[in-house]
Amino acid sequence: MSQNIFVVIEHVRGQVAEISYVMLAAARQLAQNTGGEVAAVLLGHNAQDLGKDFAADRVLYIEHAALAEFTSDAYRVALAALIQDQTPRAVLFGHSSIGMDVSSGLSAKLGYPVVSSCRSFTEDGKYVSQICGGKIMVEGDIPSPTALITMLPGGYKAEQGKSSQAPSVTSVAAPALDGLRVTLKQYIEPEAGDVDIAKETMLVSVGRGIQNKDNIELAGELASALGGSVCASRPVVDQGWLPTTRLVGKSGKLVKPKIYLALGISGAPEHVEGMSESDVIIAVNTDPNAPIFNVAKYGTTVDMFDLLPALTDKVRQAR
Amino acid sequence: MKIVVPIKFVPDLVEELTIDPSGVALDTAWLRLIINEFDDHAVEQAILLKERGGGQVIVSTVEADGSDDFLFTAAAKGADQLIKMTGDFTGVNNHALARAYAELLKELKPDLVLTGVQAHNDLDGSVGPLLAEYLGMPYVGYVAGITLADGSVIARKEYPGGLIAEIDVKLPAVLGIQASEQPPRYVAYSKIRQVMGTAKIEERPNADLNLDGGVSISRMFQPEAAERAEMIDGDADAVAEKIVAIIKEAGVL
User: Are residues A154 and A209 in the same domain?
Assistant: First the structure.
């Protein structure tokens, strides 16, 4: 057993995901507490150069053709062998499309607990997780001897996980990766041709509170009066009321407009991840406890259906 | 093709959540439980697959307020078999829930298991990948679209920024659904009532829950924002006036 902290690096098509750097920053804080090392665990094929800017004590690199791109089965087998062999104090995964595919299975397989949705660690080394759509925080000891942890962004800055000095790379032999049941066929690029909401300076964003498809038009009128665009949180896109090109958040776009007007959006972490860096966030939600008010600069609990026509009128007058 | 959808119930976030006197759990006295919305998408996806390629859809829940209504609704949508695991599942962790479902699934021998990719109160991993490991099946999550192939499925897995990975997954398998290809359908209450007369819920007692694998909690609290939003008071007109001023100040208007 060691006191080392492992970070499972996420990369897709040669691009290291930002959450990897956030996790390296978190791991550094944790390692100072345990007295261990930070090791970036990099799985790939001809990919060891990806680790050049990692703020880690070392990179543990597993090379295999079957690890060229993420697939859950190959990662699971390779990581199980590594974790079992080296028994680190904690292994950090993204609370993401990659990390969540493998961390729970590894927990069941290896018998190490997994802590979900961790946002930060306390100074004395406790996990702090964010659950119930951001409405509840949970704190506790990191399970011993080895804990698997899935990390949300927001608790640490990605820049703190970067270094100008490349860490040393230790190659670790890959286990046998045959009989894999999960294979990547191809990537499909997001549909183009619609407005690129990532480039807009003014966004009117609608959430579940918009209630139905017809009401999207009310937000659309306001957006066009303002010279901006309409975007949305996940439930609206899942209902088919707006195309996925308008989705803001974890599986959608990352936006940084000058004004982000959030209408009927609760502020679940998956959404906040995509818009928290907007210059000015104005939140409209009838629930005074909605977590969106914790990220917004301005807020109001007036009913959006009263507000929308009045606001659209006043914007038109102001032009 | 036999598809099973195991369901998790979660606190309704529309209600105010309160923490019980122990300080480490939600106060269940005031808690209203609803189906995990991702599981609702999993049910829809299962029905869509059945409509496209035939087969059998089995929906299973644990006993909870509203679980019967939920199961009858699923039957009205097209589910063929309804199973309720009875017993006290209050506050049960995901490892225990997944183990209980694994026992059931070993008997049912499905080709495909669809679960919601996550639930908002997951603290010890998510049910889908835990279940997959207990069953020795492969798992792929963040799925928003499935095509049946010969002995496998092609799952469309979402990555940030709208990128999709098409992934071949050998059956039997567990998939974690992010979104069904169509929004979960609405069924009229009259149709649900009709189903209530004919559909049967099979009860399956679950006496011994093994709670190993959970995560210990020393404190539960509501987040205090470092900087909470400055609240704008007044009626719609007054608020609109102020918002226009803010937008002007930002130089966007």
Answer: no
